[in-house]
């Protein structure tokens, strides 16, 4: 008698309805000592549509952990920028949101008009960062860049990380006083972080441009981080 | 035949009790329930409604503009993420996302789950709650936009615009899924 062992319960997700079992096999005779076994699985690459099809039913915790890990990986990539196209493909805007909010929180309260409760400055920083990033992205797209809109926003947003660190350092340093030495320390830190931000973002963004246009793409990025660095550096000591 | 030695008997004896599988009763209750994903339904509405309520009542909660701004922004972001990634697929079986292939081209993909009769599938009531929540909230934020503009409270404008964009993005994504989802299914399955 024919003995077959099939993997139970797999449907190969979307395979066309199989023909009635054992149709056409009724005239095949196989010796009983040789079990015929096989697996009905479809070899698939790790290409996303298949993965995501199965993630349609995954538990919520998995979704959260997956996204958190992706964000963490990007933060690490900003600190050690080496070109990685896989990173660029998996964009998200959580990092930029967190960085923007922290930077804006740290920058408010710097106005001489203390009854203002920091309202306008907070919204200003927010608008400068997001509007600036959108303008740079549009600029690079108009110049014929191959990178997508949200990818570019993602990179620009994540590369604000060194400047956020600079802001933190500045505020801590300012707690110690406000002399010339303190100012020089702040200047050096901010300049170093500004260079880091600009280099990190151009490492990711400039490659999507044809070579004779790289400078045209780099200078708005330079300007963008310069404005942010300026806001950080001119944050008045209390 | 090789059944020698056994005598055939009717499968169920008259005196034998037919044992019920008690698991079926729970499944039956689940099948009859009007809301099968209570947590997802709650969170679908919770973040959106809290954002709107906080915006309306922020003067009572706290005098600080910054605290209100950050709170509402965080609520809007959590709402966007949870509706896009969780409640959409649990409550109506739809999902949309963006994918960038090796060439760097970006594709927007809209998926609709084929109708499943499993007990974990979503119900009429859940779908209704989902779509109502999805449609009404962006409308409310648009109303806020005009009221902010005309009352010249411009510092809130950035927040209202962020709210409108995030909620409209989800609305648009899901409508696209609903209308065009069947195409994606056939596209995916043809790869096999």
Automatic annotation (TrEMBL), chain A:
Residue stretches of biased makeup (Basic and acidic residues): 1-10
Tell me what organism the protein belongs to. Pelodiscus sinensis (Chinese softshell turtle)
- TM ranges: 91-110, 122-143, 155-174, 180-204, 216-235
The residue ranges of the Yip1 domain are 80-231
Residue ranges for the region (Disordered) are 1-26
Q: Which GO terms describe its biological process?
A: endoplasmic reticulum to Golgi vesicle-mediated transport; intestinal epithelial cell development
For this UniProt record, give its keywords in alphabetical order, as a comma-separated list. Answer: Membrane, Transmembrane, Transmembrane helix
Protein's UniProt name: Protein YIPF
Question: Its encoding gene is what?
Answer: YIPF6
Automatic annotation (TrEMBL), chain B:
Keyword Chloroplast attributed: no
One Gene Ontology BP term is:
protein secretion
Q: Which UniProt keywords apply?
A: Membrane, Transmembrane, Transmembrane helix
Top-level taxon in the UniProt lineage: Eukaryota
Instruction: Please indicate if the UniProt record lists Zinc as a keyword.
Output: no
Membrane topology, as annotated, equals: Multi-pass membrane protein
The terms describing its cellular component in GO are: Golgi membrane
Which residue spans traverse the membrane?
Answer: 63-81, 129-150, 156-175
Q: Where in the cell is it found?
A: Membrane
Q: Which Pfam families match?
A: DUF846 (PF05832)
Homology family = Belongs to the TVP23 family.
Q: What is this protein called?
A: Golgi apparatus membrane protein TVP23 homolog
Source organism lineage?
Answer: Eukaryota, Metazoa, Chordata, Craniata, Vertebrata
